[in-house]
Amino acid sequence: MIRFGPSGNSESFYKEGHKSSVEMPAWLCEKGLDAYEYQCNRGVNISKDMAQKIGEEAQKSNIFLSIHAPYYINMASPEEEKRINSKRYIIECMTVAKWMGARRIVVHTGSYSKVDKKWALETSARLFDEVLREADNLGLGSIMICPEVLGKNNQIGSLEEIIGICKANERLSPTIDFAHIHARGQGSLNSAEDFERVINTLENSLGVERVRELHCHFSRVEFTKGGEKKHWNIDDTQFGPEFEYLAEVILKKGMKPVIICESRANMAEDALKLKKIYNQIAKGMQNEKSTCD
Question: Which parts of the sequence belong to the Xylose isomerase-like TIM barrel domain (predicted)?
Answer without folding.
Answer: 30-266
